[in-house]
Amino acid sequence: MSHLHQQLRPVDPLLTEDDHSILATVDQLAQRHFPPAEVRRRDREHQPPYDLLPAIGEAGLFALAVPEALGGIGPDWPRIALVQQRLGYHGYMAASIFNRVVGFGLMSVLTNGSEAQKAALVPGLMSGSFFIALALTEPGAGSDATAVTTRARPTDRGYAIVGRKTWISDARGARYLLTVARTGPESTGSAGVTLFLVPTTAAGLSMTPLPKVGNNAMPSFDIGFDEVEVGADAVVGSVGNGFAHLMATLHYSRASMAATVTGAAQAALDGVVAHARERRQFGRSLASFQVIAHRLVDLQTRIDGSRLLVGRLATLIGAGLNCRTEAMQAKIVATELLRDVADQGMQIMASAGYSSDSDIQRFWRDSRLYTFGEGANEVLRDALARDFGWARKDK
Ligand SMILES: Cc1cc2nc3c(=O)[nH]c(=O)nc-3n(C[C@H](O)[C@H](O)[C@H](O)COP(=O)(O)OP(=O)(O)OC[C@H]3O[C@@H](n4cnc5c(N)ncnc54)[C@H](O)[C@@H]3O)c2cc1C
User: Fold this and answer.
1) Which of 162, 208, 213, 245 could form a disulfide with 222 if both were Cys (CB 3.0 to 4.6 A apart)?
2) Does the pTM of the predicted model rise above 0.85?
3) From ligand 1's centre to the CA of 376, what distance in Å?
4) How many angstroms separate the alpha carbon of residue 374 from the centre of ligand 1?
């Protein structure tokens, strides 16, 4: 890990002793539970990392997102961002499930949930006993999430949900699906949409795994809702305001993705640099060819830039300031960075990278998701142009 500590110094000169100690906790967790060989094995065998959650909880890492009044030691976003970068460095799969607990779990419940939901769910989320998956996307509602057609009809007991969701990650391992459904009888667009916590054991739910090219340790599902009954207490936030509630937490998941992916980019680049220094052709190391050295330097510089954006975003979140713009910027920069590290890394490693035993091929497959997941970068750029006042606010 010594190279990583060296990398951290120029960008984060003000890391405190406590920061170093929490990063050491992440390093120990990784060495024990997901060393490189284990990350490779889980990817190869498509084995999700849900069993790691209690250890992450026991190390106190989820407590960073929870206020002291609810038993946590937070919220401490600058430290969460450090943890996410370091988890992303050791194994994106562990970081991804950490983010699911924090984003669609803790931050969703803490921001939009009732006092009863907080009391019932926060302790279990914080200890890593379970997690919550987000069920938003539908076959006809991808980038345009406001096109959802899944309906929740009022019943004597609560609601009956009918519809279909697709590409829902980690759905089968989750305890609940944070489900986006229409409650307004004739509603369209972002109006009349409500969030529900649907237990994954509910009758009428069917899940079909979807084959895909990467992120093998994060299975994704097509989900049928056939008259799935939930109580009125399954509503998160207020009826009809689901999109506003989702928007109030989106920056957490974008910040999480940006931090995690930046850590993964450092890990991917470290592997490429090691290879380029070791591999000799024409009597010299690959790294000694200027064209390759420049590429590596440019990528490292972009990683440092991405870490600064992640740090700025975490500071804004920690200060409770509006950071929708900065969250979108950080997400775009980090995801396109990892994509480019993986792509250029493949070129530099050539046959050694194209082997399915290499780490860079995993980053290459996995990274293809992040530029369109959590809000496609094209759609985010449109929103940024509006935020900057360069494009019309109305769509
Ligand atoms: C592995 C995986 C895991 C996922 N996990 C989840 C999950 O857990 N929960 C969940 O709810 N969803 C999940 N998704 C869905 C994901 O959020 C969507 O794939 C994403 O929102 C894009 O939607 P789409 O795939 O339908 O693409 P489309 O919306 O069909 O977009 C296709 C392309 O068109 C571009 N485009 C669309 N609109 C515009 C525009 N206005 N201007 C310019 N370009 C545009 C997009 O950028 C994209 O490149 C997952 C998807 C995958 C593949």
Assistant:
1) 208
2) yes
3) 6
4) 8
Any atom of ligand 1 within 6 Å of the Cβ of 168: yes
User: Taking 80 as the threshold, does the pLDDT of residue 33 lie above it?
Assistant: yes
Residues 60 and 140 in one domain: no
Beta strands of 28-184 (E only): which ranges?
132-135, 151-154, 158-169, 176-182
Nearest CA to ligand 1 atom 9: 168
**Residue with CA at minimum distance from ligand 1 atom 38:** 143
Report residue 275 as tokens.
């290879």
The two tokens of residue 118 are 């907080």
Token digits of residue 314: 């975490």
Atom of ligand 1 nearest to the CA of 375: 21
Q: Most distant CA pair in the chain: distance in Å?
A: 79
C-beta 7 within 6 A of ligand 1: no
Helix ranges, 53-200 (H): 53-58, 77-90, 92-100, 108-112, 115-127
Helices and strands: H and E segment counts in the chain: 14, 10
With the most atoms of ligand 1 within 8 angstroms of its CB, the residue from 108, 143, 243, 368 to mutate is: 143
Gyration radius of the chain over CA positions: 21
What 3-state class would DSSP assign to 238? coil
Last residue of a domain, one of 198, 215, 240: 240
Check whether 5 has a pLDDT greater than 50.
Answer: no
Does any ligand 1 atom lie closer than 6 A to the CB of residue 150?
no
**Within a domain: 394:** no
- In order of 52, 120, 216, 274, 316, the CA distances from 116 in angstroms are 27, 6, 35, 52, 29
| pLDDT tens digits along 256-298 | 999 999 999 999 999 999 999 999 999 999 999 999 999 999 9
**Minimum-distance ligand 1 atom for the alpha carbon of 214:** 1
In the chain, pLDDT over 90 holds for what percent of residues? 93
* Secondary structure (DSSP) of 352-366: HHHSTTSHHHHHHHH
One domain for residues 114 and 88: yes
Pocket test of ligand 1: the residue of 101, 131, 137, 249 to mutate, having most ligand atoms within 8 Å of its CB, is: 137
Three-class secondary structure of residue 106 per DSSP: helix
> Tokens 């969701």 belong to which residue?
165
If we measure between CA atoms, which residue out of 91, 93, 90, 120 comes closest to residue 105?
120
